[in-house]
Amino acid sequence: MRGARVLQNIATASETLKQLDWTSYDQPGRSGVQIHPLYDTSDTGPGGPAAALVRYLPGARVLRHRHPGYELIYVLEGELVNDSGRHGPGTLEVCPPDSSHALWSDTGCVFLVVWEQPVEPDRLESERLHRELLTEHGS
Prior knowledge:
Jelly Rolls; about 15% helix
């Protein structure tokens, strides 16, 4: 990443968010999620911080995962739901190191997220997902 990047009015102008390039971020344990990276470990190095704008489509789900470092979530639009409740626009959540949560949105939402360190899958949730995949594929 070279030079400063400025996104104006993201907290008040949904048109600004609609004009961004969104990439599908679907993977095991994550569905209905799109991302607009701001910076990531390719910029900061392995184990380094990352930040992104994340869009959950209606019905999006993310299985429980762990944060070895701090995570900041600032909801811009819609409603994000997690273990600590329902969060609308203007909500800032600070998740401490070694915290874990599952996330979803029934109606869809957009939020800014800053990860101090890369996210790790929750061991129990990963084992459950692995068993489900084996069952689906007849193994």
